[in-house]
Structure formats: C-alpha cells, structure tokens
Design a protein that fits this description.
This protein is an alpha+beta fold and 221 residues long. The protein contains 5 helices and 10 strands, in the order αβαββαβββββαββα. Helix 4 packs parallel to helix 5.
Length: 221
C-alpha cells in the first residue's frame, strides 16, 4: 500500500518552522533551548531538512520528516500517529461473508414508529491466515428513522470495508476460531434496553457512530 498515494501533505520550509519556534517561545510554550521536532523520530528540525519537512492536510500544530510519516503510514495504520486523524481508507480483517438488508413494515423497535431495518449477516466456514474458522449468522435491528437510516448507510460501508466481524474467540460461548463481532455494536433485540442488546438506548446512535469513526467510517462516505 502506497502511503504517499493515500496521504495529502504539504512541504513546510525550514524558515516557516523557525518562525513557529520564535512564536512558541514568545508565548512561553517552548523554552529558549527547545525547537520544533519531528513528532515521530523526535529529532529537532535542522537547516539540512529543508524540503523534507511536511504537515498533513487534516492535522494541526505538528510536523514530520516526510520519510518518517511515510514509514508510519505504511500498511493499515492510516492514522496520524499524534492526533489520530484518519487518512485514506482503512480496511479490516473480516473474512468473506454476506450482508442482507430488509425493511420490515410491522417490526417496531421499542417506542420508535413501526417499520424497522433487519440486517442479516451470514458467514460460512473458511480459512484465513492458515486458520480454519467456523462460520456464523447474526441479525440486527435499526429503526426506520432519519438517524437509523444514517447508521444503516454507515453499517453497509463498514461491512464492505471489512470492519464488522473478525475471526476470534466468542465471549458468550468460548468457542475459538469463529466469526465474531469486531467492536461495532449492533442491536439484536427490538426491546429490553441496553442490557439486553435492545432498544430503548438513548445514547446508542452517538456511541456506535463513534465506534465507526475510529475505523474511518463517517457519514460523509
């Protein structure tokens, strides 16, 4: 994976770094013997680094040697190592499976209006990284509301980016090498509240969108 292709950065002249250092010292944020340094290798920027210092397009107040940030962004870790801003498209480790989405008019999630989305996931037995794993089937529910439809679109995106499930050990059955949830929480019951994986759960949509965001899945997708 080519980190340079996935990342948008701009070069920062050493003169600009020196200007920032002067301002930061004046504000008392840096001692007189401190300088701006690469947030990865922690080496001070030198005049010989001119043309090699970069600032990532969505980050603030920190800089890197271009070679350092390229090394840090290789592979699946497409996040700024300082502030965690995501670059490029992160992909999970979910094995091959199927996702089906149906709108069920008579199905009601707690106090939401009638009409709910039924999400059906199905995985067959398979092999991943030389590990033979057992398949699994799961279902989840979302109310057919504006926020429910927003989360549904995010769930579909997360599935195709392989973030929804993984091969691991089931926390409920103790079975190893099986397909399990990968940390994006779904509601499997129409009622019963948060303790029973159901509705109502007033903060659920906020929490699950935060879980999705950590994997680079946002509404703008």
């Amino acid at each position: 994976m080519d980190a340079a292709r996935l990342t948008s950065w701009q070069n920062v002249p050493i003169a600009k770094i020196e200007e920032i250092v002067t301002e930061e010292r004046a504000k008392g944020h840096l001692r007189s013997d401190e300088s701006e340094r690469c947030a990865i290798c922690m080496c001070d920027f030198e005049p010989s680094d001119d043309g090699q210092v970069v600032h990532l397009s969505k980050c603030k107040e920190h800089f890197f040697h271009q070679s350092c940030i390229q090394s840090a962004l290789i592979g699946a870790a497409l996040k700024c190592p300082v502030c965690g801003v995501t670059y490029g498209q992160m992909e999970g480790t979910m094995p091959s499976g199927r996702m089906r989405v149906d709108l069920v008019p008579d199905l009601q999630c707690a106090s939401f209006p009638p009409g709910s989305w039924l999400l059906s996931y199905d995985f067959r037995d398979g092999v991943q990284d030389d590990i033979h794993y057992s398949g699994n089937s799961r279902q989840a529910l979302l109310p057919n509301t504006e926020e429910g439809r927003e989360v549904l679109r995010l769930f579909i995106c997360a599935f195709y980016r392989r973030h929804t499930f993984k091969v691991g050990t089931s926390v409920t059955t103790g079975v190893a090498d099986t397909v399990v949830w990968a940390g994006i929480h779904h509601k499997s019951s129409a009622e019963g509240g948060a303790t029973n994986f159901g509705y109502p759960d007033p903060t659920y949509f906020v929490r699950v969108k935060e879980e999705l965001a950590t994997r680079g899945v946002f509404y703008s997708d």
